[in-house]
Design brief:
two-stranded parallel sheet; alpha+beta
């Protein structure tokens, strides 16, 4: 796992050796969204696994091309004869040797051979040890089914590449969501910290009034409890920031102990909300990864059908073999008499009958093609529904943001008035707390609206496949 140096390089940072540089090195590395995505695309485990899958498909494709080249195999064997074969010959060996009269007198019919006849009239042939070695080579000359399978292997590589692109799109979306989650947590922490500071300031003002008998015991206790109630919210918001950063580091694929922070704020994304809505008007699904994978699978199935049909066509192959053999009764290798043998030929295979296996294989591939057509239709319908849903979420979030913006402005004015009135003794601490609660809710609603908008936009971009071009 690459350490802080990777983050520093991608952020364009340097690490001097001075004392100031040491302090700079101990501070968190601030990452923009683009830098976080760049790191994730090189370090994320899912992407690295997808790249390995591409390599596997490439190896499989190269292995299929190897079928077009000659296949050469070597062989060697040794056998020990346990019982020799016996050969019988139907002619009078004794007559050929000039001793026929004597054998005729005895009335015996003997079948003999050179080297001495056996009792059964046969001759043992062969030697006790047989050695053999050689090479065999074969190469397809005409094989339509093999050629089509090679094309399918190339489409497997294309499918693996598209799946890797899908993993990258998903990783980019996850990084965006985690990055936006940290920004939302930081906005919430900022709001709750402001609430705590206001509550603390109000408590100090109330305490001064209480000490000079200008505030009641009830107001003093209410102001004190408001401060105490604000503290857990600050801790929870701070913990949410830490957890969000951990989630971001996990998605990026870097060490969880790395000290990082995110750049920018949610309000930065509010400036382009209207433009983003306009840009996504009239979207298309031509770059959607799921549909592209289904299209590649449809091409593969079309070639698979042809490949199964080609199984009924004749195939022609060239073969060659060369071997040398030796037979002996001992193991004196230098005295072996080796006998070479070689042959070359053409082999024509004509499929005639296979019990319906080939036709059923074609029908099975056609059935898979029909299933894929239905699956593609259903997937496209669901994607169009998802696109409309994301666009509606973006429009709703933009409206909520406009409404929340007006609400924040109104709530802040109301809080300022309530704070001044409370300091002048014209309102109670309850009215001041109500104004603070309204301001807090408006601020959180505004941040939530921006977050909902950019998360819906990230999901829409993943669906459209626009982040990473095919």
């Amino acid at each position: 796992m690459k350490k802080l140096a990777i983050l520093a390089i991608l952020c364009g940072m340097l690490f001097p050796t001075s004392r100031a540089a040491a302090q700079e090195e101990s501070s968190p590395t601030v990452l923009s969204l683009e830098q976080a995505i760049r790191i994730a695309l090189s370090e994320n485990i899912a992407i690295r696994v997808a790249d390995k899958d591409i390599e596997r498909a490439e190896y499989a494709r190269k292995g299929s091309y190897a079928s077009l080249f000659p296949q050469v195999d070597g062989s060697g064997s040794y056998s020990r004869t346990i019982k020799k074969q016996v050969m019988y010959m139907d002619f009078d060996m004794g007559a050929m040797m000039g001793g026929g009269g004597k054998e005729e007198e005895s009335g015996a019919e003997t079948k003999a051979g050179g080297g001495g006849a056996s009792k059964g009239g046969g001759i043992e042939v062969g030697r006790w040890n047989t050695f053999s070695t050689g090479i065999q080579a074969s190469m397809p000359l005409v094989n339509a089914q093999l050629w089509k399978s090679i094309k399918i292997s190339g489409q497997d590589v294309e499918l693996a590449v598209e799946r890797a692109r899908s993993s990258r799109l998903e990783t980019v979306t996850q990084v965006k969501q985690a990055f936006y989650g940290v920004l939302l947590a930081k906005e919430a922490f900022k709001v709750y910290k402001e609430v705590y500071e206001n509550a603390l300031d109000n408590f100090q003002q109330t305490e001064k009034k209480y000490n000079v008998d200008k505030a009641s015991e009830l107001e003093y206790q209410r102001a004190k409890s408001t401060v105490q109630n604000a503290i857990p919210n600050v801790y929870d918001a701070e913990n949410a920031v830490v957890l969000g950063l951990w989630q971001l580091k996990a998605v990026m694929g870097i060490d969880l102990d790395e000290d990082i922070d995110v750049a920018g704020s949610l309000m930065d994304y509010s400036l382009t909300m209207f433009r983003d809505i306009q840009e996504n008007d009239g979207v298309t699904l031509e770059n959607n990864s799921s549909l592209r994978q289904l299209a590649i699978q449809a091409e593969e199935l079309a070639n698979t059908i042809k490949m199964q049909q080609y199984a009924s066509l004749p195939s022609l192959a060239l073969s060659f073999s060369y071997s040398i053999n030796a037979m002996t009764n001992d193991f004196v290798f230098r005295e072996f008499n080796w006998s070479p043998y070689s042959a070359a030929g053409l082999s024509l295979s004509i499929p005639i009958f296979a019990g319906g296996r080939r036709s059923n294989a074609v029908k099975q591939a056609q059935n898979q093609r029909d299933q894929l057509v239905l699956q593609t239709e259903n997937t496209e319908r669901q994607l169009r529904v998802a696109i409309r849903q994301y666009l509606n979420q973006m429009e709703t979030a933009m409206k909520n943001f406009d409404a929340a913006g007006s609400g924040v402005e109104t709530a802040r004015k109301a809080y300022d008035i309530a704070a001044k009135s409370y300091n002048l003794g014209r309102s109670t601490i309850t009215e001041l707390n109500d104004a603070q609660l309204a301001l807090t809710q408006a601020q959180l609603a505004q941040s939530q609206a921006i977050y909902n908008f950019i998360v819906a936009k990230a999901n829409l971009e993943q669906t459209l496949g626009n982040d990473i071009e095919p």
